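Quick one, probably user error.
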């Protein structure tokens, strides 16, 4: 099965998308990666969905990536005597560690780490920022605040603290258990929530022990400030615009999104744009024009993937949502302006032999009659470098390592194909030619570019490029050894 677009689609699974027929329908409609949201559902639920995805993978013969999204620490207020309290602008309100039920003047905030980090003048946001307060005075067990935006505060509502780096690890006890479960189950990517510093990522990487790639969710102001360091230790990035839009002025999110996407692309690491992309399709079979423009903007920016959350997990029209994303992607990528934007944002990277080879592969493909760039890879690194170039022709990744191919399902423009181990470059060329023909990228009259590393089966050795015919008889004739 060949996708007619380069950007990838991530679909979250949930109550509306849990059985084989629905998940297969989502894949057929265009989903390349399935997200398991560890904030909801039991381990048994996630294992059942995982097993279905792997069954569909076997049925279709096409690698499918599975991303487990860890919940992260959840900061919430306690409970109220009446279940809720109404706050008005200018009211005084206290947060403390007293477990007694709250009222219109105070409530328990059972997180001493927050009080340890607060300073006068800091902001506290409640219920996704609908209620906002400014800290006047604080200590190790209290914070006296003034309400700046009022509303109804009720039991167990979430709290955001945008102005400080909290002394909290990104992984709670639940997250550690979920991480081990997901890795043991065999997911391909782990999405790490509540990232504030690069050390949060290195901790998760140590626990994963190479069993899954680490994708950092940028959803806090501290993560935006430390983005370069976080990107360096991450395998991929998610622009989690929901919490960003709560903790930062909402108008600042679009330029931040652009910076994050460009940074990840420059580092040759996949980046997902997420949250509320087709939110209205939870209830409606048709998106709004603004939502379509939002998806299109992410694609014009060069994002590797766009993501559906509740639209596919709990909405009434999950297949229609994936189909809409697929249609928008095809429309954008066929627009001549898309090519102009993508190529104008390309940066020159010539630091290594591999950088030079992938740049040459792209330039050759754009100046001659080339049907595809085929990369024989062990780790997927060279494929990621080719994808960073955003070539005009398809990228075919060939590898004998299923885990590598699955992880590459998140990378822009990549069609992943499993192949046997090879010992000679000629057989890598033959495998590439067969894959290009079998999946409809070329016929026997076309040519392809093939990259690989010699010696084979050694990571980081990309050092050879060849323009080859797709006719095996010509390959053997021109390379008889």
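Nope, works fine. Designed sequence:
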């Amino acid at each position: 099965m060949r996708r007619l677009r380069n950007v990838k689609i991530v679909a979250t699974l949930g109550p509306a998308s849990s059985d084989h027929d629905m998940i297969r329908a989502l894949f057929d409609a265009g989903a390349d990666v399935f997200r398991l949201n560890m904030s909801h559902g039991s381990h048994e639920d996630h294992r059942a969905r995982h097993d279905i995805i792997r069954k569909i993978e076997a049925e279709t013969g096409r690698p499918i990536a599975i991303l487990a999204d860890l919940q992260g620490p959840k900061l919430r207020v306690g409970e109220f005597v009446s279940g809720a309290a109404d706050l008005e602008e200018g009211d005084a309100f206290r947060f403390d560690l007293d477990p007694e039920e709250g009222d219109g003047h105070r409530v328990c905030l059972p997180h001493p780490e927050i009080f340890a980090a607060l300073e006068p003048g800091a902001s506290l946001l409640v219920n996704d920022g609908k209620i906002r307060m400014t800290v006047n005075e604080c200590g190790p067990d209290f914070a006296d605040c003034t309400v700046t935006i009022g509303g109804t505060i009720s039991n167990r509502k979430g709290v955001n603290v945008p102005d400080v780096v909290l002394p909290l690890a990104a992984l709670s006890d639940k997250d550690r258990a979920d991480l081990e479960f997901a890795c043991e189950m065999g997911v391909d990517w782990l999405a790490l929530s509540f990232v504030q510093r690069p050390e949060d990522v290195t901790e998760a990487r140590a626990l994963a022990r190479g069993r899954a790639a680490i994708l950092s969710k940028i959803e806090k102001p501290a993560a935006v400030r430390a983005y370069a360091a976080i990107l360096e230790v991450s395998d991929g990035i998610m622009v989690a615009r929901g919490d960003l839009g709560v903790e930062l002025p909402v108008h600042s999110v679009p330029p931040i999104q652009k910076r994050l996407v460009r940074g990840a692309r420059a580092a040759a690491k996949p980046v997902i744009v997420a949250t509320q992309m087709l939110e209205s399709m939870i209830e409606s079979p048709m998106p709004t024009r603004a939502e379509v423009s939002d998806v299109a903007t992410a694609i014009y920016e060069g994002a590797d993937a766009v993501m559906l959350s509740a639209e596919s997990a709990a909405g009434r029209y999950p297949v229609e949502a994936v189909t809409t994303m697929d249609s928008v992607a095809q429309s954008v990528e066929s627009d001549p302006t898309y090519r102009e934007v993508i190529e104008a944002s390309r940066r020159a990277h010539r630091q290594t032999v591999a950088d030079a080879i992938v740049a040459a592969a792209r330039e050759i493909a754009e100046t001659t009659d080339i049907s595809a760039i085929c990369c024989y890879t062990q780790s997927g690194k060279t494929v990621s470098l080719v994808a960073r170039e955003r070539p005009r022709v398809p990228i075919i990744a060939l590898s004998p390592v299923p885990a590598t191919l699955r992880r590459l399902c998140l990378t822009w423009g990549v069609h992943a194909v499993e192949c046997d181990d090879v010992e000679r470059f000629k057989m890598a060329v033959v495998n590439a030619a067969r894959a290009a023909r079998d999946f409809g990228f070329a016929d026997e009259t076309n040519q392809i570019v093939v990259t690989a590393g010699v010696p084979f089966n050694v990571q980081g050795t990309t050092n050879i490029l060849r323009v080859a015919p797709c006719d095996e008889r010509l390959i053997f004739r021109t390379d008889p050894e």
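The chain has 18 helices and 21 strands.
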